[in-house]
Amino acid sequence: MTWAVGSSGEAARVNVPKVALSTISVYPASTATGFAAAARLGYDGVEVMVTNDPVSQSIDSLRRLRDGLGLPILAIHAPCLFWLNLQRVWGTEPWAKLVKAREAADALGAKVVVVHPPFVWQPKYAADFVAGIRRMQEETDIRFAVENMYPWRTPRNRIVGERGVEAYAPGWDPTEQDYPYYTLDLSHSATSRIETLSMLERMGPRLAHLHLADGSGSNADEHLVPGRGNQPCAQILGLLGRNDFDGSVVLEVNTRRAVNQDERDVDLQEALFFARRHLAGAAVAVERKGDVAQLAGPGGAGPDGVDVDVDQT
Question: How confident is the model at residue 210 (pLDDT cuts 50, 70, 90)?
Answer without folding.
Answer: very high
